[in-house]
Each structure stands twice: as structure tokens, then as C-alpha cells.
Amino acid sequence: MAQVEATTERIIAADAETVFDALADYSGTRAKLLPEHFSEYEVREGGDGQGTLVHWKLQATSKRVRDCLLEVSEPTDGQLVEKDRNSSMVTTWTVTPAGEGGSKAVVSTVWNGAGGIGGFFERAFAPKGLGRIYDAVLAKLAAEVEK
Questions:
Q1: More confidently predicted of 2 and 86
Q2: pTM (2 d.p.)
């Protein structure tokens, strides 16, 4: 099994603390940022960053739905890590200052891909698809915090 990775980033016209706080607000802001690929969103524990347990279903393609139960940690300042209890998937959100009053938000997801021909297609197409989904999340994040 090869590891599959999808990464996307965006410069946002809001300070890093504001952007990070919006991402870490699972009980409020985060639900507003999710495009139609996400369903059954539910905060099960916590709700603000470290210690949050959140559930959603991610429909990456018409046939592929991933049931996610994510434990949230904050290993360093400006970083949220979501580890899926149901799979090998780990998503890391990193927010750093970028220019005066701006920030750079980077989201990177890694998981152990399938083997064989299915794994070949997964490695070829999944990163682009997931990148598009997270581009939409980052666009909604920018619209939310740049108000």
C-alpha cells in the first residue's frame, strides 16, 4: 500500500489567529465551511480545537463515501490535526502569517492507499478530487473571515 497525499493552500486576507480560530471552531464556524461533499456533520465531544471529536461523511465521488470519526489535536501553534478513527486518514491544517494582516492556510491529507489497479487509480485521481473539495473549504473560510 502506497501513501496517498492531497495538499492545497490559500492566502487569506485575515490574520492567522482569526483564520485558525475559525477552523478550530467545530461547534460553530466549521460546519458553515463544508461544501456539499460533507454530510451528517456532528460534534460528539468538545467543539473547539484540541480534544474535539467530530463525525462526518465525505463523498469524494459518486461511488466513494468515507465515514469519518475524527480526533482533533493541536500539536503546535497554528496547527490542527484530524486523525480518523475509522481509517488511516490524517488531515493537517496549518495557518501561518503571510504579509501584513494576511495568512496562509494549508490543508494536507494523507492515507494508506489501496493496492493493485484500484490503488493506481486512487493515487492518480484522489489527490486532485480531494484538492478540489478542500479548495472549496478554503474559499468558504476566506469568505467567512474576510468579512
A1: 86
A2: 0.91
* Helix, strand, or coil (residue 77): coil
Question: Residue 129: what residue type?
Answer: G
Contacts of 103 (CB under 8 A, 6+ apart): 11, 12, 14, 15, 16, 18, 19, 20, 95, 96, 97
At 94-145, the pLDDT tens digits run 999 998 999 999 999 998 877 777 777 777 777 788 899 999 999 999 999 9
Q: Which of 112, 133, 113, 109 is nearest to 122 (CA)?
A: 113
> Angle, nearest 10°, between helix axes 116-145 and 16-24?
120
Give strand pairing partners of 66.
Answer: 58
Contacts of 49 (CB under 8 A, 6+ apart): 24, 26, 72, 74, 80
d(CA 82, CA 112): 15
CA distance 76 to 8: 20
